[in-house]
UniProtKB/TrEMBL annotation, chain B:
Keyword terms, alphabetized: FAD, Flavoprotein, Oxidoreductase
Cofactor(s) essential for the protein: FAD
Source organism (scientific name): Paracidobacterium acidisoli
Homology family: Belongs to the GMC oxidoreductase family.
Family matches, as InterPro entries: FAD/NAD-bd_sf, GMC_OxRtase_C, P2Ox-like
Full protein name: GMC family oxidoreductase
Keyword Flavoprotein (UniProt): yes
Length: 238, 523
């Protein structure tokens, strides 16, 4: 009680006398309701401003936790894991794609991606598995590296940024390779290996926070991507 | 309630708006600047982070900024959000519109390549019969280029080539690295000039409106600025036929407001200026507004390796550096299947190679990467896009942005001239690289979607005839004499040259002319 009185005094606020109970319809109070007060003798913001930074290095969940994969089917995920193992195995003290949790991360990433990217991945993984069964009588997840090479090599291409191969299966093979590498090289596990080898962390970049973000803004990516002609005749905020 | 009428209202704070503010305030004219986005403060708004600490591990957030190939998870928040300020186009004819609304606009992030146009561009029709000449020539612009180059501290080497006009440079007398020298020699044999690149040094690497232009304007005490306000409409006083008012909306609160002005200088960046004029339904008695959208072809190029730099043998003497091949086609000779020309950006890199340059994976790929590291050499096209009436923007009546402002519909595509030029650029690059003894690893003939170059130009072209152009040669509206548009929308043709030096020089020229007209009481 003392606390709220002193805080009110400090803020120069007056106590509003509650109106007597009566049957008349409620009317707006003549003065605004009192400002919510602090639970201590001084406004809590002051304390917050004086808190010393905690000795905390924020932990990324990957350091201790597994991604729960749920977008791909079990078969597709098994194919992706085998593909990851083959395309980026552990080399020279660096973690491989499996150690970096790349397949599970890609399950998450593709799961929240536009439909065409999802379909490109799903049909690509399905085709690899079907070809392995047809050629070697085994799922892709169970074949030897040399057998996998027979299926993959004809589709490997060189290509320049933003211009992956156009043919759909070559597109998949080359993009999934690139994505597996990015998910691995940008992982915490990779970063730790770099540090252990005395190299500078390769992936530190200047991150921009939202600058004065629009208070009405909805989350991006909530709709199929922008700019295509809107069929609706009604005005709407695309 | 205030009833102030401001002298000059400047809409936009990028290179063009910043230059207008500097020139006008230095002539003693009071200006008010409105800018759609907030003021960024790199100390407050950025933090170095490893990719693994970002929500998408350094991948682009899916579905966000799909048309901004330059965006990544680190810088995503600096670009205009495509859902917040959408635009439309036929899905078969995508357009990449790359925008920044922070105070200072795109001048905060540009790559600073700095070139003059030559009379091959300004008087293109006289040279080859296509399109239209500008109403001005290099001799009109040269004095302004010189002053702009001094402000921006453009580093370059004088080459004495008419298609690559020299300027007021911080001299670049550096010598070529070994691999560049080999490329220069290969060029000599083929009649292809390989020159030093030219770029703005600015201060501490920043060559922006916010450090080179606006501080001078504020120092005069004549500039006031309001961030976070989006101009939706300009209104003309029916009695005078002059523009008299700007209506805008507070970006955050969505409060609608208006301000009166004697003169309006529009510097919202090519397509935003045109969008505002089209939405305001003013200045378009010619019917040409929105038409002749151009930019430059980017994307085609090659990546090579310098064999002598492999297996740990790359040295600073051999590798590194950059070059620029200015246009060399269709000057004195005729290419067989395209008109105009392109330039090539040439880079040598001492960094690891991109794995995409090898059709390999796993241990085999790693071996290649180890061996080739530090031996990279690449070229990339910057090609002229022809100005066609049909390549246009218009208002899409069915879609509005987050502030209920109707958006642009963009209708453009590349034609055979651009595709043939791109093919020639790649084939010529391969010939040069092989003549220099390099191994070509990958190549790409396909242009990126139009807009990708971030050099969108035209749509309010200048000209002497009010029937066929929107602005006169002083960037002043033919219809409304107190309306001046100082950004890239005034371009008649774009050439291969990155346009910012030209935008800045035109903005300087237009603003000083406006100041003189105001002094004489004509505006
Ligand atoms: C990554 C990158 C690299 C580049 N590299 C080069 C290069 O090497 N060489 C070169 O010459 N050019 C380069 N450019 C292009 C160059 O940045 C632009 O040509 C130049 O900055 C355009 O300046 P501007 O003032 O016309 O437009 P902008 O910089 O776009 O500024 C327009 C301003 O207007 C404001 N605005 C828009 N609409 C409204 C509205 N309705 N109401 C109020 N305000 C509004 C915006 O907030 C913005 O700040 C590059 C651009 C980028 C992004």
């Amino acid at each position: 009680m003392a606390a709220s009185v002193s805080a009110k005094t400090m803020l120069g606020q007056q106590t509003v006398t509650p109106p007597p109970p009566q049957a008349a319809p409620p009317v707006a109070p003549s003065a605004p309701p009192p400002v919510a007060t602090a639970p201590g003798p001084v406004p809590w913001m002051r304390g917050l401003r004086e808190v010393k930074p905690l000795p905390i290095t924020p932990l990324v969940p990957d350091a201790v936790a597994q991604t729960s994969a749920h977008f791909f089917t079990d078969r597709q995920l098994a194919t992706l894991r085998q593909l990851s193992e083959i395309m980026l195995p552990p080399l020279k003290g660096y973690p491989g794609a499996i150690d970096a949790g790349a397949p599970e991360f890609l399950d998450f990433l593709i799961g929240v991606s536009p439909v065409d990217r999802q379909q490109m991945y799903q049909s690509g993984l399905d085709r690899l598995d079907a070809e392995a069964r047809q050629r070697f009588g085994m799922p892709f997840a169970g074949i030897q590296a040399s057998q996998a090479d027979e299926l993959l090599r004809p589709w490997l291409r060189t290509w320049m940024t933003d211009h992956p191969p156009a043919e759909p299966f070559a597109h998949f093979v080359n993009l999934v390779h690139s994505d597996i590498r990015t998910a691995t090289i940008n992982s915490e596990a990779w970063s730790k290996a770099e540090t252990a080898m005395g190299r500078e962390e390769p992936d530190v970049g200047l991150y921009w926070f939202p600058v004065d973000p629009d208070i009405h803004r909805e989350e991006p990516g909530r709709e199929a991507s922008a700019p295509v002609r809107h069929p609706a005749p009604k005005k709407q905020h695309a | 309630m205030t009833d102030e009428t401001v002298d000059v209202l400047i809409i936009g704070s990028g290179h063009s708006g910043g230059m207008a503010a500097k020139c006008l305030t230095e002539k003693g004219i009071s200006c008010l600047m409105l800018n759609a986005g907030p003021v960024a403060d790199a100390r407050r708004d950025t933090e170095p982070k490893p990719a693994y600490a970002l929500p998408f591990r350094g991948f682009k957030q899916p579905g966000r900024l799909e048309h901004v190939f330059q965006s990544n998870e680190f810088n995503a928040n600096t670009w205009v959000d495509e859902q917040e300020v959408p635009y439309t186009c036929d899905p078969q004819q995508p357009y990449n519109w790359v925008r920044v609304r922070l105070f200072g606009g795109r001048s905060l992030f540009w790559s600073r390549q700095s070139f003059r146009l030559s009379d091959y561009e300004l008087k293109g029709k006289s040279h080859d019969g296509f399109g239209d000449d500008w109403p001005i020539s290099l001799s009109d612009l040269a004095p302004y280029y010189s002053r702009v180059e001094a402000i921006f501290r453009v580093r370059g080497h004088a080459d004495g080539l008419p298609q690559y006009p020299d300027g007021n440079f911080v001299p670049d007398n550096s010598s070529w690295t070994g691999c560049m020298q080999r490329f220069v020699d290969a060029g000599k044999k083929m009649g292809v000039p390989v020159c030093k690149p030219r770029s703005s040094e600015g201060v501490d690497g920043l060559a922006s409106s916010v450090n080179l232009l606006l501080p001078d304007a504020f120092a005069t005490g004549k500039l006031r600025a309001i961030p976070n306000v989006v101009v939706r409409e300009l209104r003309v006083d029916p009695k005078t036929g002059l523009v008299s008012e700007a209506h805008f909306v507070d970006r955050l609160s969505r409060r609608e407001m208006s301000v009166k002005a004697r003169v309006v200088v529009l510097a919202a960046g090519t397509l935003e200026s045109t969008r505002l004029l089209l939405n305001s339904k003013i200045g378009n008695s010619s019917g040409v507004m929105g038409h002749y959208l151009i930019d430059q072809v980017y994307g085609p190029g090659i990546v090579c390796s310098v064999p002598e730099a492999r297996d740990g043998r790359a040295t600073p003497e051999l590798m590194g550096g950059a070059a620029l091949i200015p246009r060399f086609r269709n000057l004195d000779t005729k290419a067989k299947n395209f008109i105009r020309g392109y330039a090539l950006n040439v880079f040598s890199s001492a960094h690891p190679m991109d794995p995409r340059n090898f059709a390999a994976y796993g241990a085999e790929l790693q071996k290649k990467l180890d061996s080739y590291s530090g031996s990279g050499f690449s070229t990339g096209i910057m090609g002229e896009v022809l100005a066609h009436y049909e390549h246009q923007v218009s208002i899409d009546k069915n879609v509005v942005d987050a502030w209920n402002i109707p958006v642009l519909h963009i209708d453009t595509k590349y034609t055979d001239n651009e595709f043939n030029m791109a093919r020639d650029a790649v084939d010529t690059s391969i010939e040069l690289a092989e003549a220099a003894g390099f191994e070509v690893l990958s190549k790409n003939y396909d242009p990126n979607p139009p807009g990708y170059s971030i050099h969108e130009l035209g749509t309010c072209r200048m000209g002497d005839d009010p029937k066929t152009s929107v602005l006169n040669k002083w960037n002043q509206s033919h219809d409304i004499k107190n309306l001046v548009v100082v950004d890239g929308s005034c371009f008649v043709s774009g050439g291969w040259q990155n346009p910012t030096m030209t935008i800045l020089s035109l903005a300087m020229r237009a603003s000083e002319h406006l100041a003189e007209q105001m002094r004489q009481g004509n505006v």
